[in-house]
């Protein structure tokens, strides 16, 4: 049953997913939320295709995606077209819990911050994959990237659970195959194209959040 349902899903192609992060940047360097969220949705599909052990990670990402979609579909959706317009709207209207979680536990600014921190993990992980040797271990690359980024924001229990999930990651060659991009050489080229854009999206968000003192939203 589950297999039949899975096979009906459109075939995953990582380059299409990473394209969402490319196309989320406008000419004047604003970040389009619909595209950003579409990128994350694709990544969670990829993660689900790796097995159920990763579902607690993708579940949290899916929850956050849904919160962002809810904002976009709300009457104030037009205020959530770009990350920049969202930050301005929510701050101007006092819609963000800046010091402790209370009235606005699902603000767009807070929710996007969690995805933004995860984007740094993605950037570090993909860069390791891009430059890795054939016999490199994905579990090691993944946990190094995690320890340098997201881990500092997670409590012990989540760090442990994440560490266990990383050990279940398939090896580098299976991983490259599941990406459905082509030969390992083509994967490396594709990653080299996508990474500068992912870095730019990350840095623009980081600068914006820093400017508005939003990097520690609880
Ligand atoms: C492919 C390997 C996948 C490894 C994913 C590495 C990330 C590990 C993150 C572990 C998160 C565990 C779930 C819970 C997290 C939340 O507590 C925590 C805080 O939220 P809260 O403040 O609302 O409580 N949430 C977060 O930090 C957001 C985490 C979002 C994780 C998204 C990860 C998606 C990864 C997509 C993988 C695609 C890989 C593609 C590579 C070719």
UniProtKB/TrEMBL annotation:
Q: Taking the first listed entry, what is the main subcellular location of this protein, grouped into a coarse class?
A: membrane
Q: Which reaction does it catalyse?
A: N-(9Z-octadecenoyl)-sphing-4-enine-1-phosphate(in) = N-(9Z-octadecenoyl)-sphing-4-enine-1-phosphate(out); N-(hexadecanoyl)-sphing-4-enine-1-phosphate(in) = N-(hexadecanoyl)-sphing-4-enine-1-phosphate(out)
Keyword Nucleus belongs to the record = yes
Q: Where in the cell is it found?
A: Cell membrane; Cytoplasm, Cytosol; Endosome membrane; Golgi apparatus, trans-Golgi network membrane
GO MF entries: ceramide 1-phosphate binding; ceramide 1-phosphate transfer activity
The UniProt keyword set, sorted, is: Cell membrane, Cytoplasm, Endosome, Golgi apparatus, Lipid transport, Lipid-binding, Membrane, Nucleus, Transport
Q: Does the keyword Cytoplasm apply?
A: yes
Q: Which GO terms describe its cellular component?
A: cytosol; endosome membrane; Golgi apparatus; nuclear outer membrane; plasma membrane
Pfam families to which the protein is assigned, alphabetical:
GLTP (PF08718)
In the record, biological process GO terms are: negative regulation of interleukin-1 beta production
The record gives the membrane topology as:
Peripheral membrane protein
Q: Which residues form the Glycolipid transfer protein domain?
A: 33-180
Into which family does the record put it? Answer: Belongs to the GLTP family.
Know the name of this protein?
A: Ceramide-1-phosphate transfer protein
The organism named in the record is Aldrovandia affinis
Top-down, what is the taxonomic lineage of the species of origin? Answer: Eukaryota, Metazoa, Chordata, Craniata, Vertebrata
């Amino acid at each position: 049953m589950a297999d039949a349902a899975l096979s009906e899903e459109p075939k995953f192609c990582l380059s299409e997913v990473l394209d969402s992060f490319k196309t989320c940047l406008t000419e004047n360097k604003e970040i389009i939320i619909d595209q950003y969220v579409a990128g994350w949705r694709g990544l969670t599909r990829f993660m689900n295709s790796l097995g159920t052990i990763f579902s607690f990670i993708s579940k949290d990402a899916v929850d956050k995606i849904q919160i962002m979609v809810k904002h976009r579909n709300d009457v104030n959706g037009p205020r959530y077209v770009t990350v920049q317009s969202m930050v301005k709207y929510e701050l101007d209207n006092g819609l963000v819990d800046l010091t402790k979680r209370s009235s606005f536990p699902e603000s767009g600014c807070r929710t996007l911050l969690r995805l933004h921190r995860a984007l740094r993990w993605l950037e570090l992980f993909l860069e390791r994959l891009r430059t890795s040797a054939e016999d490199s271990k994905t579990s090691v690359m993944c946990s190094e990237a995690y320890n340098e980024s997201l881990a500092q924001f997670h409590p012990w229990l989540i760090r442990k659970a994440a560490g266990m999930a990383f050990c279940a990651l398939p090896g580098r060659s299976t991983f490259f195959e599941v990406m459905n991009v082509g030969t390992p050489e083509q994967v490396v080229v594709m990653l080299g194209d996508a990474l500068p854009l992912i870095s730019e999206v990350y840095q623009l968000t980081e600068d914006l959040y820093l400017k508005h003192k939003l990097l520690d939203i609880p």
